[in-house]
Design a protein that fits this description.
2 copies of one chain form a homodimer. Chain A is 43% helix and 15% strand. By secondary structure, the first copy, chain A, is α/β, with parallel strands linked by helices. Chain A folds into 3 domains: 8-51, lambda repressor-like DNA-binding domains (434 Repressor (Amino-terminal Domain), Orthogonal Bundle); 62-163 and 301-330, Rossmann fold (3-Layer(aba) Sandwich), CATH 3.40.50.2300; 166-299 and 334-340, Response regulator (Rossmann fold), CATH 3.40.50. In chain A, strands 2-1-3-4-5-11 form a 6-stranded parallel beta sheet, with helices on both faces. In chain A, strands 7-6-8-9-10-12 form a 6-stranded mixed beta sheet, with helices on both faces. In chain A, helix 5 (76-91) links the parallel strand 1 and strand 2. In chain A, helix 1 crosses helix 2, helix 8 packs parallel to helix 9 and helix 10 crosses helix 11 (255-268). The longest helix of chain A is centred in the last third of the chain and has 17 residues, at 301-317. The termini of chain A are far apart. At the A-B interface, helix 4, helix 5, strand 2, helix 6 and helix 11 of A face helix 4, helix 5, strand 2, helix 6 and helix 11 of B. The structure holds a DNA duplex (16 and 16 nucleotides).
DNA sequence: TTGAAAGCGCTAACAT
DNA sequence: ATGTTAGCGCTTTCAA
């Protein structure tokens, strides 16, 4: 089934004009007489003419669409980011094509190829937790495709980057635990490859140091898939609970890590906060409804999406090659609730 | 910044062939000699040639992209559906363009126009809770655009439709409440315009009837925005609690209705299930972690997305106009947990 | 077996 | 003020 649209040619034929005149009239060119304009505009309106964006794209060598690569859209943090992205993109006449890596490097590479082949004008990327090698992105970047990294950024490429102050988020959360009297604070961390993991680890360590606490690497457990797989969280927690001094508080460094931590506690009948305290990075809407309600570090996801998109579109539409790349850092927010109250 | 791709012309020039020969070689046409083919293919491989999909779209009058309209992607149910949609679409070489109505009729209309103007090949729609008038969709449909409705469907249009057995979902949940001994079962329902609301209401009523319970419309409260706005849920519950016999159980007919119900209970210090039981339609991953854990009706969202997309693409690629439209009904599943245990 | 040319819908340089 | 024409990248007659 095809669905045939009205073209400029149809209008030209109907009105006995040339296609260029119609085109110019539609674009309100100064060269066209008011009468002709009126005629064309009214007729176009009437038959509900819509310019064919594909023809325009071919002509202008731009598709007015931008690609997004995230690990999972079914993750509040990322779906909120996408909301932010869309709010700006649609405003500026771009549409977005979303691809998910599901935390797989291989799928990320495939998706990048796919998006590139769909002739996108720019790319918004948050890398997968498996990603070490960046050739797939570097290649496109060198050929001139504007790329903006958000949240999970990479050092090796010079582009705009938008992140949350992960150091501060982890620092504040850890400090809050220390001040609440917890002694053995474990860090349930994400993939070691990710920028956010390192930043959060640094914030955690610094908070410990600033409060005269010893830093013990045994209290750090990495989960390669960022908690997507329950078993990796279970393994990590099992190991933590084997320590001589069991942790009395846990800092969950990602949404899934935090919720799967809760799932583990429930399964093992460990009570929060009586047996152990929990604070987690989370953008779920539901954390206040859990019981105990969860202390969380919340990230300005929507704003992050908006800002990244503004930077990307600015670069796409810039006449001259962009030289000065920005690194924007947004503030996270700590919400103190019952899960960290002794 | 533009990012110039290799074209057939470049290959032709480099190899001293005509563009048509190159084109044919790339498509493995029988007319081309093995040597030429090999030459072209290898060269293309080398310089990483990718056909320009926009040029193809213009030529073939199809964009290989499908539009999706949902109310919110930051809603587990819909993000799971989108995952299902993508899994099929990408497999078959289509990309998806997602638009959100945020439950606003006006935005839905704008989005539909927008998607249509981006020359999509087909449309997957779940209407907003405000949508009564369907002209925006009928119009496109009559002009031949394949449309598949999922979840929130409409009667007035003859298309493929994929839904969950909402009647059964609500029936089972209500019956479970009755069998658990609850007497005054209220129904916190979504927008009256939505098919799912009516279907769930019917299931609820039938369960009451089958168990000899009187049906009292006072125990039904509609929320136009399906719980997106906390205040509407608050108002609905306030009214329910003013009844002579306060409800001792609530059936939440959508994710947000259910979670905002919990938020209300928390605020008013109403204990579940001691003061009141709660069962809700929900696809959140977290409902088992709430305490009490939540009894839910879970819908096969991913499968729904997959099935809808299969039907849509089948119709798009069908040579002859599709006459026989299917109405597929997927089974929901009741998970009994603590929130309905007396 | 290969090439030349037209055309998809649109814009813009170049006539008139 | 309006028309003619070429061209964006590709496929596909038609011609050689």
């Amino acid at each position: 089934m095809k669905f045939e649209a009205v073209t400029i040619k149809d209008i030209a034929k109907a009105l006995g004009l040339s296609t260029s005149t119609v085109s110019r009239a539609l674009r309100d060119s100064y060269e066209i007489s008011p009468e002709t304009k009126k005629l064309v505009l009214e007729y176009a309106q009437n038959i509900n003419y819509r310019p064919n964006p594909i023809a325009l794209s071919l002509k202008e060598k731009r598709s007015r669409s931008i690609g997004i690569i995230v690990c999972e859209i079914a993750n509040s943090f990322f779906s909120q980011i996408i909301n932010g992205i869309e709010s700006i993109a649609y405003d500026k006449g771009y549409n977005v094509i979303i691809a998910q890596s599901h935390e797989s490097y291989e799928r990320e590479v495939i998706n990048v190829q796919y998006l590139a082949s769909r002739s996108i004008d720019g790319l918004l990327v948050s890398v997968s937790s498996e990603t070490k090698d960046l050739e797939h992105l570097k290649n496109l970047h060198e050929r001139g495709l504007p790329i903006v990294f958000f949240d999970r950024i990479v050092d090796e490429m010079t582009t705009h980057k938008v992140i949350v102050d992960n150091f501060k988020g982890a620092y504040d959360a850890t400090e809050h635990l220390i001040k609440s009297g917890y002694k053995y604070i474990a860090n349930l961390a994400g993939s070691e490859y990710l920028s956010i993991t390192k930043e959060r680890l640094n914030g955690y360590s610094q908070a410990l140091a600033d409060h005269g606490r010893a830093f013990d690497p045994h209290y750090i457990q990495h989960c390669l898939h960022g908690g997507m797989v329950y078993e990796e969280v279970e393994k990590a927690l099992d190991d933590l609970f084997k320590l001589e001094h069991k942790p009395d508080a846990i800092l969950g460094c990602a949404d899934k890590l935090t919720t799967n931590c809760l799932r583990y506690f429930k399964k093992k009948n460990i009570k929060v906060p009586d047996d152990i305290a929990l604070v987690g990075f989370s953008n779920l809407d539901l954390t206040d409804l859990l019981s105990p309600s969860l202390t969380v570090v919340r990230q300005p996801a929507f704003e992050m999406g908006q800002l990244s998109t503004e930077l990307l579109i600015q670069q796409i539409e810039s006449k001259r090659p962009v030289k000065d790349f920005e690194r924007r850092i947004l503030p996270p927010q700590l919400f103190t609730r019952e899960s960290t109250g002794l």
